[in-house]
Amino acid sequence: MSQQQGKIVAGILAPHPPHLVYAENPPQNEPRSEGGWEGLRWGYERLRKKLAETDYDVLVVHSPHWKTRTGNHVLSVPKLSGLSVDPIFPNLFRYHFELEVDVDLARGIVDEGRAAGLEMVPMENPAFRVDYGTIISCHLVNPDWTKPIVAISSNSSYFDYSNEVGEAEMQKLGEATVKAIEKSGKRAVLLASNSLSHRHFTSEPELPEDMSKEHIYHHGQYLWDMKVIRLMKEGRTRELTDLMPDFIDQALSECRDGCLSWMLAALGHPTYAAEVYAYGTVIGTGNAVVGWHPASAEVKA
Amino acid sequence: MMLRGYIVPGKPLPLLAPEKHPAWAELRAGFDRAREEIKASGADLLLLYSTSWINVIGHQIQADPAPEWVHVDADFHDFGTMPYKFRMDPDFAKACETAARARGLHARTVAYQGFPLDSGVIQALKLLDPENRIPACVLGCNMYADRAETIVWGKAAAEAVAATGRKAVAVAISAFSNRVFPKRIDPKDDRLYSAKDDEWNRKILEMLGEGRLEDVSQVARDFAQQAHGEQRGKAFWWLAATLGQHNGYDGTVHAYGPLWGSGGAVVGLVPNPAKDLSREFDEGDVQTFAGDRGVLSGGAVPEPAAPVAMSQEARAQGAIRTTAAPKPVGAYPHARREGDLIFVSGIGPRQAGTDAIPGGAIKDAEGRPRDYDAAAQTRAVIENIRTILEAAGSSLDKVVDCQCFLIDMARDFAAFNAVYAEYFTGIQATRTTVEVRALPTPIAVEMKVIAKA
């Protein structure tokens, strides 16, 4: 009997501010949580409930904090563990991780990427420390780590060329990813570990959770974030992809790292409405938790 | 004092795989030559600035006394692991944080088990001081910092070196041209990504070989734009500010070659007071950082954290006091401004905070004379004066007149005069030197200066 074709059962825009995790990880962090950024946390709670109703085998995450310049690298060792320390907020995020990698699917993505003409590099060093973007997004979606993951690096060599080049490459990588998933027979949830607008504050209040100091860095970023979210809610993701180079430049968007573009390409640029679980700012950056759930869209149709 | 400076590459191929390409081996040999120079220099601090340690919130300073980990590079994970255990200088890290804050920078020390040191830092420390003989301090690179902020960051580091009496070697970790091959290559095929990048690198290396670090700092922005310089050329800004912002160095290009298409070089710079110190600032020579947008203070541009801790009343009267210089021994400020001139009080060699006397006191606690190093005292005096002038918004090169007081002209004049020449040959201030019977503290040298504001 032939293996059932795999598919993507959800795509999640899953930003990775460490501020959302430290409240759940108190023994390893200094400040005591006073309830900052609850809006974003509630969004992730609702998302987790939704995913609890979703049958899936693997999380495939694309992270901007595994920065590579020599191709698209993919975790390809079965087990990885260690201590993740956020280099920007070490006071907020020190996290002992132990995770399983779906090596078969990882190899499939490498193979399909190569077939599409992309530079793909399997990461096979067992001492490798997984980046904190991957850890945070996976924790927020699946805090018990009950599913294996595949993690893909952000290839910042595209920065040397243009946003358009990066977007074209992410289109190819998304298409390669979905082909590999289909061949694997797995049911996959994709995680794009991106914020939206991404200009940070460069100073911080004494109390990490002083919400009186938290706001979008500037109004232009907010307008861009709302425009992008509206396009998601209206199922206009092809238009969003077309606008991405401008969004990246004008809102200093972390989408430059390609995670969202990769995911939208893998999802086939959905025309159904995305579920917006939350929007909030973290040290001036815009963060949205957004889900694309093909099964729900089919039911509504 | 800053003994010398280096620029070294951050891509860890000379550490991990020098045998795979002749240029990687040559860069490794360049590190080796730098290591021998550092060993012979008598340095007691390696001060590192890494363009691969990207900071977002202000400026971070590594303060874990003994960081230990097994690091794997994000790109070159198939070239092996980098286990390390280093010796850091947490006291200096604290002093650097203090100096940075006094100049208006948001700065903090970090000391966490497992904190991710970057590949460039690991390569530099493993190759420049493999036996951990010299404690180190690592400074981060803020991704948003512009030229002005980076220069203030460098000045704060130099100020901390002076305040703590360290003998430091500054190491800026950065590529030159930084366009890499966006794919896996056979290492033996490595070359500079483009002829244009190579030409730009060689032009900058020619200037550095002539010791013209400040000139390189001035053109760093253009270089970075043309040759994809790492972090927009911040390493040159930082190193120039840390070493004193002039062109009077003996420069040595120890090695240059490709690292996956980028330009890597090991360059040494040793201050040489006998050389032309001329410098020309195309932009203002900034002393303090005033914040970028004031986003945490309701939009108002924040008052820079005062480098001079003074009352409003004292400020109004033109008095200048700074916590970065030794406390006055009487009811007088470190300096005061009158019109366009800064009048600095008589300043000795004592160190801020500790009152330690570099070169030793002239007598012991019982009043018995003891041997001391007049050269070390003179150097400390001049560095204290530099600190005070910079706190006042001026600088050592703006000194127009010096009055110098020695307690033993016959014994100390030659040593004093030699150190003085290191600093003032290019400044050409007028000078008067007299012998006095005693000074208020057990020191041998005191100077007072007048400088342009």
Please characterize this protein's 3D structure.
- The complex is a heterodimer of chains A (about 300) and B (about 450).
- Chain A has one domain (about 5-300): LigB-like (Protocatechuate 4,5-dioxygenase, Chain B, 3-Layer(aba) Sandwich).
- Chain A has 8 helices and 10 strands.
- Chain A has helices at about 40-50, 105-115, 130-140, 165-185, 220-235, 235-250, 260-265, 295-300; strands spanning about 5-15, 60-70, 70-75, 80-85, 95-100, 120-125, 150-155, 185-190, 275-280, 285-290.
- In chain A, the strands form 3 sheets. In chain A, strands 7-2-8-1-10-9 form a 6-stranded mixed beta sheet, with helices on both faces. A two-stranded parallel sheet of chain A has the order 3-6.
- In chain A, a hairpin with a 2-residue loop joins β9 and β10.
- The two termini of chain A are about 30 Å apart.
- The model of chain A has no long low-confidence stretch (mean pLDDT about 95).
- Chain B has 2 domains: about 1-270, Protocatechuate 4,5-dioxygenase, Chain B; about 310-450, RutC-like (60s Ribosomal Protein L30, Chain: A).
- By secondary structure, chain B is α/β, with parallel strands linked by helices.
- Chain B is globular.
- In chain B, the strands form 4 sheets. Chain B has a 6-stranded mixed beta sheet, with helices on both faces. A 6-stranded mixed beta sheet of chain B has the order 11-12-13-16-14-15. A two-stranded parallel sheet of chain B has the order 3-6.
- The interface between A and B is large, with 42 and 37 residues.
Any key phrases for this structure?
heterodimer; A: about 300 residues; alpha/beta; Protocatechuate 4,5-dioxygenase, Chain B; six-stranded mixed β-sheet; two-stranded parallel ribbon; 8 helices; B: about 450 residues; 60s Ribosomal Protein L30, Chain: A; 16 strands; about 30% helix
